[in-house]
C-alpha cells in the first residue's frame, strides 16, 4: 500500500468512527421521551408516599411499571410495602397500648422499619409512653395490694424491653417495703430499631457484692465563680480542642441573681444533708471569689478519690419559656471518661428522680455529652445537674425562694444517697 492510499484509508476510518460517535451522541442527548414525562409521575408518587397515601402512590407506580417495565418503579413499590407494614406496626403499637397490652405494644413498635424515617422519629416518644403506662398500671396494682401481679406484669414487659431502666428499678423496689413510683422514663436508654434485642442480656449482670465502704466521699462543685476566665484549657487530657477555663454562667431574668451565687447556696444545702448521712463532702469552692478552671475542679474530685462528682449548675436559654431540670454524663464513647458512663448515667437519673419527687420540676432528662471539660477530666463518676432555667421568669422566681431551694437540695441529696446505696 503506498502512502497516499494509506492516508486515504485512515481518513475513511476516522470519519466513519466520528459519524458513529455523532450518532451515539444523538442518542444520549435524546433519552426516550417517555422517561422525562415519567419523572413527574415519580415525583407525584414520592409526594403520596411522604403523606402516607401509599395506595395512590402504588397506582402511579404500577402504571409506570406496566408501560415501561421500569426497575425504579418496582423498587419503589417494594419500599411502599415496607412503609405500609411499618405504618401498620406503629398504629398497632398505639392500639395495643390503649388496650393495656404493653409488651405486645412495644414489640409491635420494634417492627417499625429503619427505612421509615417518618415513624422512626416517633419511636422514642412512643417508647416513653409505653414504659410510663406499664409503670402506672403496676403502681395501681401495687396500691391495691397486688404486689405479685404488679411484679409479674413488669417482668413480662421487660422480656421485650430489657433496656427500660425505670421498670427494672421499680421491680427492684417492689421487693423492698416502700416502693415509690418511678418517675419519667424519658431518661431511660431508648431502644435502637433494627438492632436485634433478644441477643442483649435482659438486665445488666449484677456486679460482685462489694462490702460497704466505711466512708463515702462526694465532691460537690458549685458551677462558675464571681469572675469567669476566658483563658483556654484543653477539653480533655491531651486534647487539642480548647475551651474557656470557666465561664461566668447565667443570671436570673427577674431576680438578677447570678448563677454562681444560686448554685453555691444549693451546694451548701446539699452538703449539710449529705454530712447528716455520714458522707464526707468535698467542696470545690465555698465562696464566690475563686479562680478554679473546670480542669481544676475535676482534679479536686479525682484527688479526693470521690465516689461521685456532682457539678451543680443552672440553665439559661434565649427562649424564656423553656424550663425544667436536666443532667449530663459522659457517653460510652467518651475517649477519656467512657468507662464512667454507666455509673454517671445512673447517678444523673437518680438525682433527677430525687429532684422531681421533691419539687415536681419538669424533667428534661439526662443526656450524654462529651463536650464538658469538667466531665472529660473526671476520673470518678460524674454528673452535671442543671437545676432549672434562670431565664424562665417563673422558674427564676421559684428557685430564688428558700423553700424551693431546700426542696431542690433534698432531691439532689436523695439521688446521691440512692446512688451510693445508703
Ligand atoms: Zn452553669
UniProtKB/TrEMBL annotation:
The keyword Secreted does not apply. Residues 298-417 form the MurNAc-LAA domain. The keyword Signal applies. InterPro entries: MurNAc-LAA_cat, N-acetylmuramoyl_amidase_3, TPR-like_helical_dom_sf. Residues 54-86 form a coiled coil. Pfam families: Amidase_3 (PF01520). Residues 1-24 form the signal peptide. Keywords: Coiled coil, Hydrolase, Signal. It comes from the Bacteria. This is N-acetylmuramoyl-L-alanine amidase. It comes from Youngiibacter multivorans.
Amino acid at each position: 500500500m503506498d502512502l497516499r492510499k494509506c492516508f486515504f484509508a485512515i481518513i475513511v476510518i476516522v470519519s466513519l468512527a466520528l459519524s458513529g460517535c455523532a450518532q451515539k451522541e444523538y442518542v444520549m442527548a435524546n433519552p426516550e421521551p417517555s422517561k422525562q414525562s415519567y419523572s413527574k409521575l415519580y415525583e407525584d408518587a414520592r409526594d403520596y408516599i411522604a403523606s402516607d397515601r401509599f395506595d395512590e402512590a402504588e397506582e402511579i407506580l404500577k402504571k409506570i411499571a406496566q408501560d415501561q417495565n421500569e426497575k425504579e418503579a418496582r423498587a419503589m413499590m417494594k419500599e411502599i410495602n415496607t412503609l405500609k407494614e411499618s405504618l401498620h406496626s406503629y398504629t398497632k403499637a398505639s392500639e395495643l397500648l390503649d388496650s393495656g397490652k404493653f409488651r405486645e405494644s412495644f414489640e409491635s413498635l420494634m417492627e417499625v422499619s429503619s427505612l421509615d424515617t417518618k415513624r422512626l422519629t416517633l419511636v422514642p416518644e412512643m417508647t416513653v409512653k409505653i414504659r410510663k403506662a406499664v409503670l402506672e398500671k403496676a403502681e395501681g396494682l401495687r396500691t391495691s395490694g397486688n404486689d405479685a401481679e404488679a411484679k409479674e406484669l413488669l417482668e413480662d414487659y421487660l422480656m421485650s424491653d430489657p433496656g427500660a431502666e425505670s421498670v427494672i428499678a421499680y421491680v427492684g423496689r417492689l421487693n423492698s417495703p416502700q416502693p415509690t413510683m418511678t418517675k419519667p422514663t424519658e431518661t431511660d436508654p431508648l431502644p435502637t430499631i433494627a438492632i436485634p434485642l433478644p441477643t442483649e442480656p435482659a438486665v445488666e449482670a449484677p456486679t460482685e457484692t462489694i462490702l460497704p465502704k466505711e466512708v463515702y466521699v462526694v465532691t460537690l462543685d458549685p458551677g462558675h465563680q464571681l469572675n469567669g476566665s476566658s483563658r483556654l484549657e484543653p477539653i480533655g487530657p491531651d486534647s487539642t480542642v480548647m475551651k474557656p477555663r470557666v465561664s461566668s454562667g447565667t443570671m436570673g431574668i427577674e431576680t438578677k441573681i447570678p448563677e454562681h451565687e444560686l448554685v453555691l447556696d444549693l451546694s451548701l444545702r446539699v452538703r449539710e444533708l449529705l454530712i447528716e448521712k455520714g458522707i464526707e463532702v468535698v467542696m470545690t469552692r465555698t465562696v464566690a471569689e475563686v479562680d478554679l478552671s473546670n480542669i481544676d475542679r475535676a482534679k479536686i474530685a479525682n484527688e479526693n478519690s470521690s465516689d461521685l462528682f456532682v457539678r451543680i449548675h443552672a440553665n439559661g436559654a434565649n427562649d424564656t419559656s423553656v424550663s425544667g431540670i436536666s443532667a449530663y454524663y459522659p457517653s460510652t464513647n467518651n475517649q477519656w471518661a467512657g468507662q464512667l458512663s454507666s455509673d454517671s448515667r445512673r447517678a444523673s437519673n437518680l438525682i433527677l428522680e430525687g429532684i422531681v419527687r421533691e419539687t415536681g420540676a419538669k424533667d428534661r432528662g439526662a443526656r450524654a455529652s462529651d463536650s464538658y471539660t469538667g466531665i472529660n477530666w473526671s476520673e470518678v463518676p460524674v454528673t452535671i445537674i442543671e437545676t432549672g432555667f434562670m431565664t424562665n421568669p417563673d422558674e427564676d422566681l421559684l428557685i430564688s425562694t428558700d423553700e424551693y431551694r431546700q426542696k431542690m437540695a433534698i432531691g439532689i441529696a436523695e439521688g446521691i444517697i440512692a446512688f451510693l446505696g445508703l
